[in-house]
Design brief:
It is a single chain. The protein is an alpha/beta fold and about 350 residues long. About 45% of the residues lie in helices and about 10% in strands.
Amino acid sequence: MTQTFLLDPDIAWAAFEARDRHSDGRFVGAVRTTGIYCKPSCPARHPKREHVTFYRDPAEAREAGYRACLRCKPDEVGRDRIAVAQAVALLAAAEEMIGLDDLALQVGYAPHHFHRLFKRATGVTPAAYARGLRAQRAAKALTGNASVTAAIYDAGYSAPSRFYEDGAKRLGMSPSAWKRGGAGVTIRWTIADTSLGAMLVAATDRGLCRVSFDEDEAALCARFPNAEIVEGGSALAALAAQVVASVESPERDHDLPLDVQGTAFQEAIWQALRAIPLGETRSYAELAAMVGNPGAVRAAGTACGANPVAIVVPCHRVQRGDGTLGGYAYGVDRKVVLRKRERHD
C-alpha cells in the first residue's frame, strides 16, 4: 500500500520526542523492532528514529501488520474525541441541564474519567460548558424578549434565581443591563505605550474587557455603545501596567482578571488558547480538537479573530497546519515578535 502521512515525518518525530499529547489522534508511530504502534504522548522509552514509521491513523498501522501499544492505548484516542463531540451535541440539544453521571453514561464512559477527558479536550468541565450554553441562550433571549423573566425561562433556567446565580455572573453585567446593550456598566480605558505600539486597555469592575493595538476611545465606544466610557483611573493604571508587562516579559506569570463573554464555543477556544504553554504553538486543527470539535477548524479561526483581549488570551500562538503563521488581527509582524519573545529567540 502507499503510505500517507498526516504530518511531515520530522515534525511527527519531534512530537514523539516531546511526548506531545496535543498531537495524539493526528498520527501514530509504528516501531519495526517491536511490531507495535503508539500515540505521540506514549510514556514508554523512545525507540531509535530509524526504527519508526509514521501512519495517518491506527487502521493504517494495523493494515501494515502492527498491533496497538497496551500502555498508551492509541486506539482509544479517536473514541475519546468522538465521545466528547457527542457530549457537546447532547449538551447543546438539551433543554435542561444534564448531570455528569447521565452524560457519561450516554457516551459510554465512567463519570470521573469522562470529567477529566472532557476538561482536557475543551478546557472546561461539562457543567461549565453547559452553563456557558445556557447563558449564551439567555444573552440571545435578552436581546429579543420584552420581559427579562421570560428570557430567563426561554434560556432553560428553572427559575430567575438560577440565572442570577451563574448566568449574570458569567455575562459580566445584570440581565437588564445586558438587554439595554450594556447600559449602566462603567468601562475605564487608557492607551498604554509598548514596544509593539500603542495598546488600548479597557476594563470593567470585574476585569479586562478589551485589550487591542491600534484602537482608541472611539473604537471602544463603537464596541460598547451603551456603556459609560470613562478615561483612566488609578486602579486601571495598575492593571494596564500588568498588561504591558505581559507584552514585554511574557515569561512571567500574569494572572489577569477578565470580563469577556462569547458563545460557548468561543469561550472554550479562548480557554484552550490560554492552556497553550509559553513558547509553544498549535494549529487551528489542533485547537479545534482541543475543544472536542475537530471538524470546526474554520470556526476555531473565527473564534481566534473574535478574541477581545489580545496577549492575555494568546491567539498569536496559533498557526496554520502547514506551519505558516496565518493571520493576526494586529499584523503578522507583531505576531512574529511575540512568538520570538516567548521562545527567548
